[in-house]
Input
Amino acid sequence: MRIVMKIASFLVLVVFVMGLSTAVYADSLTVKTEQGKVHGKTINDGKVKAFLGLPYAAAPVGDLRWKETQPPAKWKGTRDAASFGARCVQGAVFEDMVFRDGGASEDCLFLNVYAPAEAKTRSKLPVMFWIHGGGYEGGASSEPRHNGDFLPTKGVVLVTINYRLGVFGFLATADLAKEANGAAGNYGIFDMVAALRWVQANIGNFGGDPKNVTIFGESAGSFAVSTLVASPLAQGLFAKAIGESGAVFENLEPDDSLEAQEVKNGKWMASLGVTSLEELRAVPTARILYSAKGIHFASVVDGRLLTEPVPTTYAAGRQAHVPLLAGWNHDEGSFIAEGMTAEKWKAHATERFQERTEEFLKLYPGDTEEQATRSAIDYSGDTFIAFDTWKWIEAHRKTSESPVYRYRFDLAALPSKYHPAAFAFHSDDIEYVFGTLDTRPGETVRPEDRKLSEQMMSYWTNFAKTGDPNGPGLPAWPRYDKGGLLIHLDSTITTGPDTLRPRYEFLLK
Output
């Protein structure tokens, strides 16, 4: 009888423990935020918890269209966080962009949090805050190439965000400046600051450490990183920065000023037949988007988010003094790979550089068609992305007194639907960083691709953890600020000096 009772008691205990463990597991998918509770889901065979479509700000619609980002509303009960929020309104800018959300809307200020399955409230894991690219005109956090299935398995919490784009994110007019006490524009970047503040307030409940946040982005996302490091409003919201192919270090032209943008954008506003901000905010979304097609709405020195040009901030050492990892891809200019001849290249050099033609052709030679094509790709890549990224790295290296790590991504991808030739093209690195190579349409993934992706995921997450990308089993990555050496990310990883420095010094003149 006692044995039966003991067995019965044991079974009751087993059922209780199993029920308790199930409850604990289920509860780990329910997290409290300052706005209310959210309930997520697991992905990657249960290895990662995903909390999708979390509002980090009020919907920028109605009277909040073209205003600085406002705090999100609170809710009662538990919000379902199993699907992406709407992406921000945009045109069909990039044909290779694929989205997994329900569509575009002005109500789009959502973020996603991905955490290792074992992450708990007090885990204090490093946080990686991703800013997507797309020229400030396209993109969204729902793109498969930067999904969160794999990076968190390296022991980090990943946050990906949407932010306002194009005319909705960067319109600056005299009326908007007057309304905001002199500041106008940069709403998309204000969104990023608001999302970082949300992270500071809430990420601890997802297992992240708000004191160890790394901002990282590619292309426009990298432009944003260089801007946030310079912005006084973003100081203290992150501890490290990673820039992949891009920086706000171009030579400023007169039409880049706030005043010039106000004049140009004021003419656009007048073309709509409206005379006040109230009328402009009442114009339907589709009409705004259609009428702004082909117009570039740029970030500006607005006096609040940016009080001076970004290069000026770095030159004076007023940027955030945080560790920086940055670089670009070998073939950033591969989009002009066809149609170049030696004759055309030399004619271009003469027209563009005149008395400096001979010096230019030594750096970008064009004696044969093959050589001219390669030089055209190199020069286009330099003027498009590499040169400004180089200036950013050099400026931070000189004035930040922080560790700087520099790379070049060299592994050429196989030809594919969107990239018909073998190049390490612009944006090629994204899927390697996120471990999402299998999301590429119709492309064969080679063993060397998977190996490099695993190495880059480790480098990036190591940097997020400690400010140093190095770790066990990885080729050594030297500090650029100490010896001027960079790493070449290829099928075989190597390091060496900046052999292309003469090109960038020529472009400085």
Notes: The first strand starts at residue 30 and ends at 32. Confidence is low (pLDDT under 50) at residues 1-26.
